[in-house]
Amino acid sequence: MPFFYYFDSYYWIILVPAMLIALLAQINVSSTFNRYSRIASRRGLTGAQAAEEVLRAHGVYGVRITRVSGKLTDHYDPKTNTIRLSDAVYGSTSIASVGVAAHEAGHAVQYAQEYGPIKLRGAIIPVCNFSSQISILLIILGFALYSRPLFAVGVVLFAVAAFFQVVTLPVEFNASRRAIQSLRDTHMLDDQELRGAKKVLGAAAMTYVAALLVSIAHLLRYILAFNSRRRD
């Protein structure tokens, strides 16, 4: 049968369900954030202040906290040792904002304490970036030339790129655990508010799980399509 028959079949059978799960994860994190962004925390700390409090509680100093445009664009930049909080988080006193800011501060604490998985993730970024750039080209050439060696190398490189997402999972879950523990220990949020923060961070974590699922679906689709084509 023609190559595109298999390509399209596996696209619908394997990839589309994974992409739908990823879409649902994105919708969930957005709706959960919006829900708890409308509920102010009782202590009234802003996202920026919450991040400072988490850093101070762990004895981490010298980290800059700045504002960045966009929604859910919050991140920690290890190159400049800067926590960048989105407009909806930086100056907001909501439960969602405090939770997200504490999570990003958790990443800064991970670097300060030389947390193993985050050091590994930083070390493999160049290799994973290279692998992601060249893997698809080799996979396409492997298909076009009926070359198993080319295809195999492409698949291996794609798997290397996907490994970055595997390493990201413990990093993100650990940062969330640190955030919740810090919010509890410093009494920035009470028990009821903590439940809301957990929901926000849990929803965000699921987007990373969904992204890994999509990568695995891509990989499985490529392998099945190539093997099916060779049988023709």
From TrEMBL:
Keywords: Membrane, Transmembrane, Transmembrane helix. The chain crosses the membrane at residues 12-33, 123-144, 150-171, 200-224. It comes from Candidatus Flavonifractor intestinigallinarum. The lineage of its organism: Bacteria, Bacillati, Bacillota, Clostridia, Eubacteriales. This is Zinc metallopeptidase. InterPro entries: Zn_peptidase_2.
